[in-house]
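Hey forum,

I'm writing up a methods section and want to include a predicted complex as supplementary material. The small molecule is coenzyme A. I've pasted the protein sequence and the SMILES. Can someone with a working setup run it? I'll credit the forum in the acknowledgements.
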Amino acid sequence: MPSTATTTSPRASPRRRASRAAARAPADVVSVRAVRRGDLAQVIAIDATVTGLVKQNYWRSVYRRYGIGGKDQRHFLVAVADGRIVGFLIGEVRDWEFGSPPCGWVFAIDVHPDARQHGVGTRLLEAISALFRRAGVTRLRTMLASDNTLILSFFRSQGMMAGSLIPLEMSLE
Ligand SMILES: CC(C)(COP(=O)(O)OP(=O)(O)OC[C@H]1O[C@@H](n2cnc3c(N)ncnc32)[C@H](O)[C@@H]1OP(=O)(O)O)[C@@H](O)C(=O)NCCC(=O)NCCS
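Reply by user p_vandermeer:
Happy to help. C-alpha cells for the complex are below, copy them as they are.
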C-alpha cells in the first residue's frame, strides 16, 4: 500500500508527535474496539479534520445512543494504534425499514488523514460486518454524498454496489 506523505514538524509537541506516529501505523498494529468516553475528544478532532466543524454536543449525543446505549443493535467502534484513536465507524441494525428485512447500516466512517491507505477503514468495516453477522444480519447498506468519490472508491473496494433503495428528498421550507 502507498505510504502517507505526512512528515513530522520539528516544532510539534511530544504528544502531537506520538499522535502522528500512531496515526501512521499500518493496520496490522491497529486494534478495533467499542468506543469509550475518553476517546471522544479524539473522535471529535478526526471528524473536524473531515468536516471542518467541531460538534461537541452532537458527538456526546451519538456516544449516549451508540456507545453506552448501543447494546447489540447499535455500534460505535474505534480503531486504536499505540493508544491513539486513528479512525471510527458508527452503524446499526435497522429492522423492517421500508419493508426490508433487518439489515446493517453504516452511517459514519472516518480515518485520520495521516492513517489512511493502510487498511484501517477496511479493518473497521470488517469489524462491524462481524457484529452484524452475529446479530443475524446478512445485508450491509450505506448512503453517501454523490460527489464524495473517496468514500465511493472505498465502499466499492469492499464489494458494495448500488442497492435497491432510492433516496428521495425535498425542501420543507
Ligand atoms: C474512506 C476512508 C474511510 C478510507 O479509509 P482507509 O483506512 O484509507 O481505507 P483502506 O486503507 O482500508 O483502503 C481500502 C481501499 O479503499 C480504496 N481507497 C482508499 N483510499 C483511497 C483513495 N484515496 N483513492 C482511491 N481509492 C481509495 C482503495 O481501493 C483501498 O484499497 P487498496 O489500498 O488496496 O487500493 C478514509 O479515506 C476517510 O476517512 N475518508 C473521509 C471519509 C468521509 O468523507 N467521511 C464522511 C462521510 S461518512
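Some notes you might quote in the supplement: Confidence is low (pLDDT under 50) at residues 1-12. The first strand starts at residue 31 and ends at 34.
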